[in-house]
Each structure stands twice: as C-alpha cells, then as structure tokens.
Amino acid sequence: MKQQRLEEKVRINKYLAMCGIASRRAADQMVLEGRVSVNGQISVEPGFRIDPRHDEVIVDGRRMAEPEHKKVYILFNKPRNVITTSHDELDRQQILDYIDVPERVFPVGRLDRKSAGLLLLTNDGTLAHLLMHPSSLVQKEYLAQLDAKFPPAMLQKLTCGMRLKDTGEKVSPCKAKILGDGMSVLVGIHEGKNHQVRRMFSTLGFEVKRLDRVAYAGLTPGELRRGEWRFLSRKEVEQLYRLCGNQNH
Length: 249
Prior knowledge:
Layout: H1 2-7, E1 10-11, H2 12-18, H3 24-32, E2 36-38, E3 41-42, E4 49-50, E5 57-59, E6 62-63, E7 73-78, E8 106-107, E9 116-122, H4 125-132, E10 140-146, H5 155-159, E11 175-179, E12 184-189, H6 196-203, E13 208-216, E14 229-231, H7 234-243
Parallel strand pairs: 9-13
Antiparallel strand pairs: 1-4, 2-3, 2-5, 5-6, 7-9, 7-14, 8-9, 10-12, 10-13, 11-12
Helix pairs in contact: 2-3
C-alpha cells in the first residue's frame, strides 16, 4: 500500500509542467527561488514530490488547479525589447502581453530582450523538456548583423567549436554562412547557452548589432510579422516530437 501511495505522487517540477506553468527546468528554478509553496510551506527542494489530488500548491501567490488537459502550441515572432519571462519585477513588456489565450503557456527556452524572432510557447511540459534537452540537438538559426564585415577566412574559427573568451567555456561546432555585403552572418546552433551567438562573435572581436532567430526546430516565420503569433498544426507538433526522437505521440 505504501509503495502504491508513493507512485501516486509526482515531482513538483513535473506537476508544474503539467499545469502549464513552466518547463521542468524552469520549474526547478522557481522552486529554488522560493516562489512555490506546498500546503503553506515554501518548497526549496526541486525533487520534492506532491500528491496532486490532496496537496495545495501555490506559485507566486496563485493556487494551482488540476493540470490542464488541452495542449496548446504557439509560434510567436518576438519583437525586440520584449521580455521572454512571464515574471518581471521591473514591469517591462512581456511576451504574454501579445498572446491572448485562456490556457497558461510558457516559453520553450529564452530569447534575450534585445533579440527578436521565433519563440515557441506551450503548456506541454513533456515537449518543452524534450526540445530543450541537449540530446535532442534541436537546430536554431540566427541572423546576426555585425558592426564590421566578417572575413571568410574567420569562418572556420566561428564554426569549429571555439572557447568563449569571457568564461573559457567551449561551445559545440556550428554552421555559418556570410550573407550579402559581409555584415550579416547566418548561424545555426543546437546549444542554448546564455547569449551564445553574441558571445561567439565577441570572442572573435565583433559586436552583434541586431540578432534575429529566423528558424527554430525547422519552424520559420512564414507570414508572421513581429508581434504576431499562430497555433501550430497537429502535423507540426508531431514533427517536433519526431525531431526529439519520440515516435509515440
């Protein structure tokens, strides 16, 4: 009986993902920040398990209801100077100011304030976790506009898997193509390190003046203008699951 009871409990991060609050990784961070309480007690242990049927879970002062069953998948073309997070103490413009749906959705990964381009939002914690897991090798393409022409002779340094000068951290090999007059470079990476593309160019002595994410996991803007969004089709969702190696969705 005790074992059966244990199996009915779920990790707090999984429960929050099921509720559409955040991905499991982001939920862990929310717990560590003291934003989650269980039965009136602040939870500081990401591995804590709860009973969804009986435990009261509160996040940022809001009581969680039963996990939502309707899954929502949204592709958003983020403008610059819009915050990706849904919790900002400075009251800056956020992505959820643009998206009006009854379901609670959260961004899959982040796109920094100064960058624009594609962002996926969902309440499907399972897919979010798969897309962000390093083993999925999800490809992201960025168009970087630089402060100077990028010489073809430096392409190998950019793509071979450099060490970032600020931390000494090594990044994986990537793809890159110089466009037009040489002031723009298209970069494809599968990692998601903080400000990675900007830091890669900075390591080589260039400043990124504008950065747009022009493709994510095979999805492109199409007719979406800045600040516009659309629901993904069922076929697109299935393709994302297949991309992550999950054939059973």
